[in-house]
Amino acid sequence: MFRSRLTRSWRFGTATAETGARSSAAGGRYTPSLGRGGTPDVRAGERDIAVAEQAEAKARHVGLVGLAVMGENLARNIARNGVPLVVYNRTLARTEEFMGEHGETAGILGAATVEELVAALEPPRQIILMVKAGAPVDGVIAELTPLLTEGDVIVDGGNSHFPDTDRRAAELAALGFHFVGMGVSGGEEGALKGPSLMPGGPRQAYDLLEPMLVAISAKTEAGPCVTYIGPGGSGHYVKMVHNGIEYGDMQLIAETYDVMRRALGMDAAEIGEVFLRWNEGKLASFLIEVTAHALAQPDPETTRPLVDIILDAAEQKGTGKWTSMTALDLATPVPTIDAAVTARIMSSMKTQRVAASELLHGPAPDAAAAHPAVGDRDGLIAALEDALYFAKISSYAQGMALLRAASDAYSWNLDLSELARIWKGGCIIRAKLLDPIRFAFAEAPDLPNLLLAPSLAEQVNATAPGCRTAIAVARAVGLPCPALSASLDYFDAYRSPALPANLIQAQRDFFGAHTYKRIDKEGIFHTEWPALQEAV
Question: Residue 470: in which H helix or E strand, if any?
């Protein structure tokens, strides 16, 4: 590989200009061992070359395309776990930079072209794509397929939309190749130290990948944070819903922070201390820990709390929106996730919000001080803790119900207990709460909703009053709390034996003859409603 410039000794099978020896297949530059006085030790150098050639002779099956931060860290993780690896990036300069920084890591080789990448790997090849979702994935696949051998596996480790994964899997299967859509959660740190992995596709392909995936995944007392998700686009679907739950979690945390900040008048450091305490109890999770540290971080330029000078406009990449859209397609309510997505959109309307603040009026400035719950600061903080815990359970119940609906609709046979298990480590939503969720689905695999699990029903019943208090305070002082409200509304609607949808059906039948059912007898009915006297 890379024979055009001999000085790049990290290239596969390239002679170095200095020694004429083949570069180490371990990926680093070959440097002769030094004897006394810093002079080359010829015998040691010969041994080094022999070791390098033995390593080079070891079969390489795994390649990785895309060396942005996630791809870079995943490549380092793979190599650190003893898997020989060939890396490639569309821009040669990035490959050279990566090899310059990490070329000493045993097992890594660099490729300048897709052709060199494929040539350096032995069948069955396992090529992981860590590139931007959408057209870039299709572009890399188009470059790879003419070079592959029947039975080779392409793994998409990005956040691709699951219908795209289904399409690619069908197209590649027709050519004799396997395609695996794999969710990777944990961010750049997780990719390096051990992520939660959600691979979906042909079982045969997963079995081929499993030893490597187990090695590089996060580990908890419950085992490696990877499992076979199911066929087709199931892996990317599960990652999408994971991200939707993450959206909900983050918005719920932000709303409890806002009540402490604007209703109780607490500063960032004080609120951070509250989150630190919460992280020692039932709310223990990665996101609560991150929140505590974020609130304690000073801005190096102003020494003010960094969070106080960050613009209040949250961005998004689309997985939350996808979750809401597919939930509508499957007629499965996920109102907390919907609210979180909408809240981010509303936050981005900064200019309009500032203008509206001058025109539209809310409660008087002293409303917070007048509210009885605000007068009991410790009591309100305790209510907020319960509110956040209650809402998290409600949000997880919604996400898991969506996964159940998708599993049934697409015949994926998802194991929801296993999903909760692999989310316990490495991923962004890892939390203590996942243990009771895992056990609930292990005890009742066909459980239609987490809220019906006795252990979790007991917990939401106990913490719902705190959520009602938190929302009442927010409403009284004019603070938006869409995700907390949606979580409580979901709970109240789900536990209601009767909802006002009877009136909606009457309205639909009145103006559109859409018919209705009755509660006292079987059948479909329509009423000849009286004509209105005049148009409104």
Answer: helix 454-476
Query: How many distinct structural domains can be found in the chain?
Result: 4
pLDDT confidence band for 495 (50 / 70 / 90): very high
DSSP secondary structure of 166-206:
HHHHHHHHHTT-EEEEEEEESHHHHHHH--EEEEES-HHHH
Q: Take residue 156 and report the two structure tokens written for it.
A: 């998409």
Nearest in space to 161 (alpha carbons), one of 360, 321, 397 = 321
Q: Shortest CA distance to 391 belongs to which of 229, 254, 235?
A: 254
pLDDT above 70 as % of the chain: 87
Kindly state whether residue 471 falls inside one of the protein's structural domains: yes
Task: Let me know if 509 is exposed, middle or buried by CB neighbors in 10 A (0-12, 13-18, 19+).
Answer: middle
Distance, CA of 367 to CA of 379 (rounded, Å): 18
Which residue segment(s) compose the domain that 530 sits in? Answer: 500-536
Same domain, 435 and 527: no
Question: In CATH, what number is assigned to the domain containing residue 533?
Answer: 1.20.5.320
* pLDDT band at residue 210 using 50, 70 and 90 as cut-offs: very high
Question: What residues are labeled active site?
Answer: 239, 246
Range with the poorest average pLDDT among 92-96, 99-103, 208-212, 454-458: 99-103
Output the pLDDT for position 372.
Answer: 74
The whole-angstrom distance between residue 446's C-alpha and the CA centroid of its chain comes to: 25
Tens of pLDDT, residue by residue over 147-202, are 999 999 999 999 999 999 999 999 999 999 999 999 999 999 999 999 999 999 99
Q: Residue 447: give its domain's CATH number.
A: 1.10.1040.10
Is the pLDDT at 394 greater than 50? The verdict is yes
Q: Is residue 527 part of a domain?
A: yes
Which residues, listed in sequence order, are joined to residue 230 by a DSSP beta bridge? 200
Question: Does one domain contain both 191 and 288?
Answer: no
User: What is the distance of C-alpha 177 from the center of its chain?
Assistant: 27
Burial state string for 278-298 with b = 16 or more CB within 10 A and e = fewer than 16:
bbeebbebbbbbebbebbbee
Q: Are 483 and 248 in contact (CB under 8 A)?
A: yes
CATH of the domain at 151: 3.40.50.720
Both 227 and 247 in one domain: the answer is: no
Judge if 154 and 105 occupy the same domain: yes
By residue count, the chain amounts to 536
- Residue at 495 is within a domain: no
pTM for the predicted model, two decimal places: 0.87
Residues 277 and 216 in one domain: no
Residue 282 one-letter amino acid:
K
Closest CA to 27 of 85, 87, 109, 98: 109
Does residue 203 sit in the same domain as residue 323?
A: no
Residue 195 to residue 337: CA distance in whole angstroms? 23
Q: Would you give the distance in Å from CA 513 to the centre of its chain?
A: 45
- C-alpha distance from residue 219 to each of 27, 194, 199 (Å): 27, 7, 16
Is 406 found in the same domain as 383? yes
State pLDDT tens for residues 507-527: 999 999 999 999 999 999 999
